[in-house]
Structure formats: C-alpha cells, structure tokens
C-alpha cells in the first residue's frame, strides 16, 4: 500500500507540474520564447566569460590554500555544516521537539536524507526520535526555520522511530517522506543518472543508509593505503539536501581543510575511504580555512570524479581501466 500511495503522490505531483507548464505555454508562448532566447544567449556569454577567466586546475593546486577551492562546478547559495545542524535547538520551530541528534545519509546519491530529532518530552519509548526530511527546515548557521509545508499537525501525527537508528535503508526513509506527503529525496538523482544512462537501475528499498555520527572521523587513505586524513564534517545544501562535499582534516595542519566531493572516495572493506591518488597528489590539492566554507568544489576534483568514475556519490568499487 505504501508503494501505491507513493506512486499516486508522485503522479499527482508530476501531473500538477505538467498542467501548470501547459497553461503557462498557452498563455504566454511568444513572450516565453523571446525571454528564453535572451536568457540562453546571456547565459552562454556569461559561461564563456567564466571559462575564459577560470584558472587551470594545476594553477589552482599551487595557489595559496586559504583562498579556498575555485569557483567552478555547481555553486550552492547556502551551505551548512553537518556539525552545526546537529545540536540545533528546535524549540522555536515546535515546542514538542528538542534538538537535532543525528543525520541519516545516502552516500550513493550524496544526500542528507533525514534529520533525527529528539523529543523534548519523549513518548512511551524514551529513546524514540522523529525522523524528518532535512528539507523541512531552512538551516542557517545552526538556526532552523520551519518550511510552510511542515505543519504542527504533521509532527503530532507522525510515527516516531526507535533504536537502532543505523537500520535505515531507502525503503524506511521513503516511508518517512510519505508521512509528510513529500516526494522521495532521490528523484533528482535518478533523473540525472537516467539522462546519462537510460538503463541505470536504482535500488529504492534495500540500499543501506548511514548516520553522520558513524561517518565522522572515518579515515581517508591514499592509493598506497597511507592515512592522509579523516572526515570531520559535511557541507550540506539545506534547500536540496545535497551533500556538496566532505571536509577532510589532516594531522599535519588542522587549520587547513580539504573540500572533497563524495564521488572521489571509494568505500573499502575495512570501513575506510580511499582516494585512488598518491599521498602527495592528494595533499597538494587546494585547501580552505575553517572560517571560510567554500560554496563550490575545486574543478580538479570535479574533473577527477567525472573522468575516472563517471558518476557522483561514494564509489563502491575501485576504478577499472577501460
């Protein structure tokens, strides 16, 4: 029944968007065409100018680290640290809630799926929490503003989740989205993948999700299996729930950090992340300082992931030479 409900919800959601699009085209087609052409030409000019001005990946690698990664790739207007979101007091959002205790992550889609929220006055099970789509709030520097679609009634009627919280998979996460009448978080990811590969298959049920608390402090190793750093944080876009990049610290200089997209990591059998580059090659990449959270990932990392693996998200196997 949950699957049928999800399909009906998605159908109504898509039908509504198509209806609005058709009516808009019938009413203002000539103006829309002219506007589209104008915007497209301006966008092409702007993109060409940006390409002409953008330094190469090599020059970026040798630049001063505290300037941060280059302004290429997808630009996020707002990014928040996972460590800032956790502990955010939600009393001003809803007086029944305490604070955000943990985040449920989908490492393949590079998305923060759910926020696990503690109750101020727990229900029967004292360890129970509320699992909410992270897009339910606008997070900004550890402050939360409730989105209009999240009503107090939804919160009251939602079913709490109980330990163990590391049991989440996509099926359970999808059920939480259904509770709040929201389309599943993975739709945009699947659309992007199927646009590149019509035969792309996506597991909507059994794929295992992870907690941020278990991901934090994960060791990162080089192609020689030398430990080069640890995952200390994630930069998350609260509007789309996308994980823009992981923050890697090094023991050598903790004042400087690396912004690395999840697609650059290969998950190993011993629960570490491997970057299939030599230690020196990794450590010469651009860095940033704690007070200057980058809005984009360095072009070198974007190209590395695109050329070597061809898809976003943590890789489940090493690169296979073509």
TrEMBL record:
All copies of domain PRC-barrel, residue ranges: 212-280
Biased composition (Polar residues): 46-64
UniProt-recorded name of the protein: PRC-barrel domain containing protein
Region (Disordered): 46-77
Organism superkingdom: Bacteria
């Amino acid at each position: 029944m949950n699957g049928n409900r999800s399909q009906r919800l998605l159908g109504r959601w898509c039908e509504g968007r198509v209806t609005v699009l058709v009516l808009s085209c019938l009413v203002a087609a000539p103006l829309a065409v002219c506007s589209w052409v104008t915007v497209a030409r301006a966008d092409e000019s702007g993109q060409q100018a940006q390409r002409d001005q953008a330094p190469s990946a090599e020059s970026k690698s040798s630049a001063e680290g505290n300037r941060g990664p280059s302004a290429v790739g997808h630009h996020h207007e707002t990014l928040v640290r996972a460590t800032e979101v956790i502990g955010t007091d939600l009393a001003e959002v809803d007086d029944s809630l305490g604070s955000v205790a943990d985040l449920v992550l989908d490492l393949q889609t590079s998305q923060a799926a759910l926020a696990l929220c503690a109750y101020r006055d727990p229900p029967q099970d004292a360890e129970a929490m509320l699992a909410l789509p992270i897009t339910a709030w606008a997070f900004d520097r550890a402050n939360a503003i409730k989105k209009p679609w999240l009503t107090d009634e939804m919160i009251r009627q939602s079913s709490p989740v109980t330990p163990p919280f590391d049991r989440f998979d996509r099926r359970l996460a999808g059920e939480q989205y259904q509770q709040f009448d929201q389309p599943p978080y993975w739709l945009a990811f699947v659309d992007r993948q199927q646009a590149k590969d019509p035969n792309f298959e996506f597991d909507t049920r059994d794929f295992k999700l992870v907690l941020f608390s278990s991901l934090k402090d994960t060791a990162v190793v080089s192609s020689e299996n030398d430990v080069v750093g640890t995952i200390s944080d994630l930069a998350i876009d609260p509007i789309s729930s996308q994980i823009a990049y992981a923050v890697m610290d090094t023991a050598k200089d903790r004042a400087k950090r690396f912004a690395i997209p999840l697609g650059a990591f290969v998950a190993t059998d011993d629960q570490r992340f491997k970057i299939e580059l030599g230690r020196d090659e990794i450590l010469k990449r651009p860095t940033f300082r704690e007070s200057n959270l980058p809005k984009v990932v360095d072009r070198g990392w974007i190209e590395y992931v695109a050329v070597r693996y061809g898809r976003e998200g943590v890789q489940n196997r090493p690169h296979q030479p073509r």
